[in-house]
Design a protein that fits this description.
- By secondary structure, the protein is an alpha+beta fold.
- It is built from 13 helices and 13 strands.
- A hairpin with a 2-residue loop joins β12 and β13.
- α5 packs parallel to α7.
- The N and C termini lie far apart (about 75 Å).
């Protein structure tokens, strides 16, 4: 009965439910009442406002209102004392941390912000990005995973890109090859002109935005509703090095993707074949290449048909026999011109 009452009557003696108020008042007026009249209000027994009559267990007698009031006042007093102790502990802790703050200099020197700052919520992220955009004077490096960029995403950052372009800031963007098929991205790049240079890879790292090699932004959760603002010189330098190595391996958006050398197999199917050979599942491959699982499976089906494989196991053998179990060489720059590495 106790559990049932807790579910339907989640309250204390200081605030009875309507049915409990009615039954308890009746019990006080009459001095006692039949147990069956309290069956629908088990909260009165749980709160000890009613208890069995020792002379007749089929009847319930009420606890006097004076005793209930005394109990409530005692409980309130105990809660106030506990709250005072918690406040005192919090004040003491605050004073201790404040003392430490006066003794230890802030990371990066007194004039700089924290080396790592957590940005919780899209509004805070956008505000921090706007601040970094206003302070940027030289270059912005970005990595944009996820395949085709939605026009809403491009529009959201357009005002920052236009402001950077107006100040002559150089921008370099890395995308997956799938992004080449997005009309919104092509329109964005046409609008930005020479201010933005874009290249693509089979797959890229998680989103990265780097301003002037001094501040970087990366996601802090899978939903990208939280971000890390990084100003630690070693971290920022490391991320810049990662970007430059990916950039060197990437193919300019204006250049065609290299041919696979195998009739009927596209560059994307070649990339899927290499990931299949590594043992990745369809969902993982789709995420890494920035395509849907359905599209990924359609490419795998075409790959199986082209290679004459009747099962996934046989497909793995055919991939190895065709030399598709390793990614082909990327584009490299020779004397300022784009060329393809030997396959």
């Amino acid at each position: 009965m106790a559990g049932h009452g807790a579910d339907e009557h989640p309250h204390g003696a200081d605030r009875l439910c309507e049915a409990g108020d009615r039954v308890y008042s009746r019990a006080v007026r009459r001095g006692r009442l039949p147990r069956r009249e309290a069956e629908r209000v088990p909260c009165l027994l749980e709160l000890a406002l009613l208890h069995p009559d020792p002379d007749d267990m089929d009847w319930l007698v009420p606890t006097s209102p004076q005793e209930v009031m005394t109990r409530l006042l005692r409980g309130m007093y105990d809660e106030v004392r506990a709250s005072q102790r918690r406040v005192g502990s919090a004040v003491a802790a605050f004073e201790w941390y404040a003392g430490l703050g006066r003794q230890v200099p802030a990371p990066g020197g007194p004039s700089e912000g924290p080396a790592i700052r957590v940005l919780d919520g899209l509004a805070r992220i956008q505000a921090a990005m706007d601040e970094a955009t206003q302070a940027c004077t030289t270059e912005v490096l970005t990595v944009q995973p996820g395949g085709i960029r939605r026009e809403a995403e491009l529009s959201e950052g357009l005002h920052r890109a236009m402001a950077l372009r107006g100040r002559g800031v150089r921008m370099r963007d890395l995308y997956t090859h799938v992004a080449r098929h997005g009309h919104g991205l092509l329109s964005y790049l046409e609008l930005m002109g020479d201010a933005v240079e874009a290249r693509t890879l089979d797959e890229v790292i998680e989103r990265l935005i780097l301003f002037d090699r001094t501040v970087a932004f990366i996601p802090a959760n899978a939903e990208r509703t939280m971000a890390l603002e990084l100003r630690h010189p070693a971290l920022v330098e490391y991320l810049g090095t990662v970007f430059e190595r990916l950039w060197r391996l990437a193919i300019p958006l204006t250049a065609p993707l290299p041919d696979t050398g195998i009739e009927g197999i596209s560059h994307r199917e070649q990339s899927i074949a290499a990931l299949l050979a590594e043992g990745h599942q369809d969902a993982v491959i789709a995420e890494r290449l920035g395509i849907s699982v359905r599209t990924c499976r359609a490419h795998i089906a075409r790959l199986s048909e082209t290679l004459g494989a009747a099962s996934r196991t046989q497909l793995g053998v055919r991939i190895a026999q065709a030399g598709l179990d390793k990614p082909r060489g990327p584009a490299v720059t020779v004397s300022g011109r784009e060329s393809r590495t030997a396959r």
